[in-house]
Amino acid sequence: MKFASLFKRFASIFYDLLVVLAVLMLFTLTLVFINGGNAINSGSIFYQVTLLTIYFSYYYYSLILQGQTLGMKAWKIILLTEFGELPKSKHLLTRLAIAPLYNLPLMIGLWLPFILRKKITSYDHYSKLFVFDERSKNCLK
């Protein structure tokens, strides 16, 4: 199987960011409506934890059920094990915990391996999950 290109990875991240922001805005709008039109206190622990839960739930359930988020579907890339199987919970949770840490400083965890010609990120390696170009998915069979 062929690894997904850096461009496709960034494009799917941007697409997913738009989807997640829309969901978070709808959630916030719902809370404002329930709160009688008054603003939500942004310092509220409940609000912050719920936003993080929605954020991670979007990625977790999309990837555990079908190996793709909406952005990944649009760009025809898929997250699979090296054996072409859908992610298992243990590996996916590892990836979701590690990836933000590597990507916080200017997405360095994503683009640096491509500059070094490695084609996989550190969190691909540690989670044992890899982003493949979906068009080459049939190569496994």
Helix content: 55-70%
Give the beta-strand count: 2
> Would you identify the regions where 5 or more consecutive residues have pLDDT less than 50?
none
Biggest sheet layout: 2 strands, antiparallel
The side-by-side strand order for the widest beta sheet comes to: 1-2
Shape: elongated
Number of helical segments with 4 or more residues: 6
Give descriptors for this structure.
mainly alpha; two-stranded antiparallel sheet; 6 helices; 2 strands; 60% helix
Describe the 3D structure.
The protein is mainly alpha-helical and 141 residues long. The protein has one domain. The protein is 60% helix and 7% strand. It has six helices and two strands. Strands 1-2 form a two-stranded antiparallel sheet.
Quick gist of this model?
By secondary structure, the chain is mostly helical. It has six helices and two strands, in the order H-H-H-E-H-H-H-E.
Strand-helix topology:
Layout: H1 6-34, H2 45-66, H3 70-74, E1 77-81, H4 89-103, H5 108-115, H6 122-127, E2 129-133
Antiparallel strand pairs: 1-2
Helix pairs in contact: 1-2, 2-4
